[in-house]
Amino acid sequence: MIRSLLPLLLLLLLLAAACTEKETPGPTPAGAFASLYTLSSSGTPRQIGDARFEREGNLVRLTIELYTLTPGSRHALHLHEGSCEDPGMHWNGGSSEKYCTIPSMGTPWGRPYLGDIGNIEIGSDGKGSLSLQTDLWALGDGSALDVMGKVLMVHAEPEDFALECDPNHTNHPHTNPKIACGQVFKRVRMP
């Protein structure tokens, strides 16, 4: 009788051991961030803001907060390839097509490049914030649509993205000076 219960007893011991053995979880992706610093050929760069990228299902939410800028000013925001020291072209997800009419969450993106974020308005206190969400971007998947590693640029002046989407508009030289920058890095949440 005991001999016939031995395999069952062994199986129960193995199951009990498996149930009590806990796997230590590692860090999990929690999004990405960019600390935005002034670009200056003279003087020490100073931080003027932060950007947070969060994935929510198939959407990426971006929240940008700027501070210590000229009250009442407006600034264009873009994602670029490259680095702050050597910024490349506007990021366009590996495509040469304009994104003006490509749907984002059911409505046209309305900007020529995938990395065209929009204009941020600075209040009388020198602070401004901008939030957007899109299903056109990815976060941390390594695809051409992944914002990880891109460079967030703050430009000196606002831009007219609707005009740039007009089919009769000819390309302009993009001479809007870059005043601040931050590289988009992965942020992890520890267990």
Automatic annotation (TrEMBL):
Protein name: Superoxide dismutase-like protein yojM
GO molecular function: metal ion binding
Stretches of the chain forming a coiled coil according to its record: none
Family indicated by similarity: Belongs to the Cu-Zn superoxide dismutase family.
PROSITE patterns per the UniProt record, alphabetical: PROKAR_LIPOPROTEIN (PS51257)
Taxonomy, superkingdom: Bacteria
Domain Superoxide dismutase copper/zinc binding: 49-183
InterPro entries named among the record's database cross-references: SOD-like_Cu/Zn_dom_sf, SOD_Cu_Zn_dom
Gene giving rise to this polypeptide: yojM
Classification via Pfam families: Sod_Cu
Signal peptide location: 1-18
Organism: Cesiribacter andamanensis AMV16
Alphabetical UniProt keywords: Signal
Any Gene Ontology biological process: superoxide metabolic process
Lineage: Bacteria, Pseudomonadati, Bacteroidota, Cytophagia, Cytophagales
